[in-house]
Amino acid sequence: MGSTIPIVKNEDGKKKKKGKKSSTKKGKKEAEDDNNTKNKKKKGTKKGKKSKKSFEDNKNKNEIPKPVVGGKAITIPNNQNDLVKMNPVSIQTSLSSDPKKPKKVSKKKIPSNNELINQYIPVQFNGNIISMVYKWEFENEPNVIRVQFLLKNNIENEKVKIIKFEIAETMKAHIINLDNKLPITIPPNQAISIEKNIMLLSSTIISNISIPATIQYQDLSVDPKNYQESFKLSLPLTVYMKKPNFPITPDYFVEIISDPEKITQNAIVKVTLPSNVSQEQIQNIVRYTSEDLLKLHVVEVINGAATLVGQTVQGNIIASLLKQTIKKNNDIVISLNIKGDNDELVNGLADIARKFFQSLKK
User: CA-to-CA distance for 30 and 130, rounded, in angstroms?
Assistant: First the structure.
């Protein structure tokens, strides 16, 4: 057993451990080193408490803000001479989350409302000198839609001249060419906007529309070269949708779904979203799916469910129920039940919704 180290008080009244005397210088030095080590430990403990207190004070003063759901939408501002800046990156944002907790991070990407509305359809060209995207919307005239094309010059130091831009006439579409003042020059890394009005001709077959188109352009380098690209302008069958000429009321909705002649086809589409998706994002998805994507009109909204109706220029009627439910694990299920009297129309709308729902899960 080792000998006991007595404790004595120094002049200040503090307790002090008195080391065992050593008969040699080596022993004396070891005792001094031992005391110095103990004193350093005491000081270190005191300093640590002070640092911890300082950290808590700074934490209260500078709290890190909580992450915001959603992201910044990519906008396309108009400039002089109808020039616009365009970012060809696909419009998708991630749910913000705490980087310190990777287990809770969702891999699903949910676009915001602005991003949903401003989505463009890309065109695949053989070359990489220019790139193009487009979107369409209804015009005030009956059976007329307006297509907006954005053509971007991908060359960093040279201009590109658009010489000709033509969309062919078909059995389903008549092209109303607007005055786009061609030829027009695109500065490096910028884009121009070209718009075309298309009149949809009456057709008994309701399906997607594919219209041949060509574009001719020239790079304005030291040795200019001419190029021509051919592509298909693809339009979904929703271009045939219009505002119903019947009352958009709950009573008429019940009358539609109760009529066996008006409801002969049925299709159901579902998607499951993670529990950390906000209600605002869910409302954006529901609104975009019904109004912007499928061109349907809201009849009534009750307890997370919406009744929808639609009509085509051919007179076909659509009645739909879009609702959200919460599973036991708090995941959210959005289901869309589409009913109508035309198999091509019902299944076509279901396919459009299904592709969009699948994109939310990537």
Answer: 81
Task: Report d(CA 167, CA 134) in Å as an integer.
Answer: 13
Place of tokens 């404790």: 7
Distance CA 299, CA 84 (A): 38
**Cα 277 from Cα 70, distance rounded (Å):** 10
Q: Check residue 82 and give its pLDDT.
A: 37
Where residue 339 falls among pLDDT bands split at 50, 70, 90? very high
Distance CA 98, CA 335 (A): 30
3-state secondary structure of 137: strand
Q: What is the end-to-end Cα distance of the chain in Å, rounded?
A: 70
Calpha distance 253→308 (Å, rounded)? 8
Q: 193 near 238, Cβ under 8 Å?
A: no
Query: Side chain identity at 357, as an amino acid letter?
Result: F
Query: How many CB atoms sit inside 10 A of residue 10's CB?
Result: 9
| Residue 304 pLDDT class (50, 70, 90 cuts) | confident
